[in-house]
Amino acid sequence: MINLETTYMGLKLKNPVIVSSSGLTNSVRKIKIIEEKGAGAVVLKSLFEEQITNEAHHLIGKDSVNVDYPEAEDYIKNYVKGNSVSNYLTLIKEAKEAVSIPVIASINCVSSSDWTHFAKEIEKAGADAIELNVFIVPNDRNTSSTDYEQLYFDIFTAVKKEVSIPVSMKLGIYFTNLLSVANRLNAEGADSLVLFNRFYEPDINIEDMKITSAEVLSSASDIRRSLRWVGMLSDKIKGIDIAASTGIHSGEAAIKQLLAGANAVQICSTVYEHGFDQITKILEEISAWMSKKEFKKVDDFRGKLSYGNIPDSALYERAQFMKYFSNNSKDVIM
Length: 334
Prior knowledge:
Elements lengths: L5 E3 L2 E3 L3 E3 L8 H9 L4 E3 L3 E2 H14 L7 H29 L4 E7 L9 H6 L4 E6 L10 H16 L6 E5 L6 H11 L3 E4 L6 E4 L4 E4 L9 H14 L4 E5 L5 H10 L3 E4 L1 H6 L2 H17 L20 H4 L4 H6 L1 H4 L2
Parallel strand pairs: 3-4, 3-13, 4-6, 5-6, 6-7, 7-8, 8-9, 9-12, 12-13
Antiparallel strand pairs: 1-2, 10-11
């Protein structure tokens, strides 16, 4: 009998497949379908700090509120903030009533401002955990990488001090020393790291000569971005869970991440492309592979190919295609 049960951030999951924060998780109706199709947990669509701020600025501009009426500006900012958070708390409460799988709230942060205090309200609403979805574009040449990294720690500690439920940090790949950042977050009390965030990326339409959005959905090849770091971090940073994200489009991809040491995997783009039945298909593929390899439970093979469990750990570190270019030089010379 195959047992897919696992533990993530101290939460008991019936399997390691989590549907990540997106439009797939913004309503109770969709969340119920996600549970029916077999997902182990769900991360709600993020509460966006930037969106709240932009909506407030839009209303302030539209209503011609100016510096002569600072109290009116404050009122509008607080109204928009309070209304957005209220709607989010309602989603948490209704989702918790509708499903039995863990419901993880998501906060998309760009600062450690006062609004992070709403994390306590999120906990009171019944969320089983909070995932902090953070990406700060380093756009100031006079600000050091250390100062930018400090913003991540400030956001995490501001939220962590407000709640007792588990808190994870969803990170991007663009750090000078990701291991150092992960190690400090571990020391600060992070329950999990989610690798990696998928960001908005700009593109250029050369006909209209306008900035547009690049492809939103991930591809199966994007797993390469996270597999190396899941394998290294799961071995080098003890006491913190790892959730793999981005590029997980099949059961095979999920198995790879679990072999590398992930505690759970988050899926999104493949569900957009193939529908909610893809959740069931991925779980069936994992079970079939486990049966073939005679593994009874996930912990039987989790981390078997992590950084410290393979004969040549340099395979995770290698940055150049040395073997390929040395053996196939004639094929690549133009």
